[in-house]
Write a structure and sequence with these properties.
single chain, 293 residues, alpha+beta, Alpha-Beta Plaits, 2 domains, 62% helix, elongated, DUF2179, YitT, transmembrane, transmembrane helix, N-reg_PII/ATP_PRibTrfase_C
């Protein structure tokens, strides 16, 4: 028993370390994009970071100054407090580390412009900013702000709403455009579009697939599956045309991020198992969506 507890603690520590490295790398990458691509091109980033930059720009019009770093903290903390019970205390904690690191890095680091061409800043900046957000999401955290809201709603609906986040960012950019020039707002919207599509391309938490599993030991495979995953599974008896032996065909619908773990587990039960993974375009009925850890 003590050995099992020690193994669980070690796994938890490793998982926490991976998440910490992911959020710090994410914050560092976002700081780099803001300082070397967004600011030189006079653009606006997405989410609450973009709102913080916009607040500072508006204050500058009236001779004032509001630190972007402080504004990031002030905007994110209330949303974090509202969402941590509905999402996850651990998820919220590491997300807070991410935006706190971003705030700190913006104060202490000074990345120089990489490109002197606004189009290159838009394309590479949008892609890298999206990668920064994806890193945090892959590490089971987020960049805070609108990510909290997007993930809260997505977990309730069981589908991605990043397109709606893009619309929110576009609305903020319209305010930016009306005050500071539409050409920069236009470039910023393209930047946001590239960033959003990058997240969609690499973050597949809400995509579903159907697993078609062929095995001769259905009872053991089903028992193993049900013990470890909270999805339904259907078993149909079939006949192997080549082997002329009885075979069982199992069907289940799962999230894409679960596939590797499921296949690895089932192969331990039946090493000769065959699994066909098929994309599920639409699914109607109850579906268990694993909460954030």
């Amino acid at each position: 028993m003590n050995k099992k507890i020690a193994i669980l603690k070690r796994k938890k520590a490793i998982r926490n370390l991976i998440t910490l490295l992911a959020v710090i790398t994410s914050a560092l990458l976002q700081t780099f994009v803001i300082q070397s691509m967004i600011r030189p091109a006079n653009m606006l980033s997405s989410g609450f970071t973009g709102v913080a930059i916009l607040i500072d720009k508006i204050a500058a019009l009236y001779g004032g100054s509001i630190s972007t770093s402080i504004a990031i903290i002030m905007l994110n903390v209330p949303v974090a407090l509202l969402c941590y019970k509905s999402i996850s205390a651990r998820f919220t904690f590491f997300s807070c580390i991410q935006f706190a690191c971003t705030s700190l890095f913006l104060q202490v680091m000074n990345f120089q412009p990489m490109f002197h061409d606004i189009v290159l800043n838009v394309i590479f900046g949008g892609f890298l900013y999206g990668i920064g957000t994806t890193l945090a999401l892959k590490g089971n955290a987020s960049t805070g702000g609108t990510d909290f809201i997007a993930l809260f709603v997505s977990n309730r609906l069981g589908k991605s709403i990043w397109s709606y986040v893009f619309l929110f960012n576009a609305a903020i950019l319209c305010i930016f455009g009306s005050m500071f020039g539409w050409i920069y707002a236009g470039y910023s919207i393209i930047f946001q579009f590239i960033s959003t599509k990058t997240i969609d391309a690499f973050h597949h938490r809400y995509e579903r697939v159907t697993l078609e599993i062929l095995t001769s030991d259905a009872e053991s495979v089903v028992d193993t599956y049900v013990d470890h995953f909270r999805h339904g599974i259907t078993c149909v008896q079939g006949y192997g045309g080549f082997s002329h032996k009885k075979i069982y065909i199992l069907h289940t619908v799962v999230s894409t991020y679960e596939v590797a773990d499921i296949i690895e587990l089932l192969k331990q039960t039946d090493e000769r198992i065959i699994v066909n993974v098929m994309r599920t375009e639409q699914f109607f009925g109850n579906f268990y969506q694993k909460p954030f850890e």
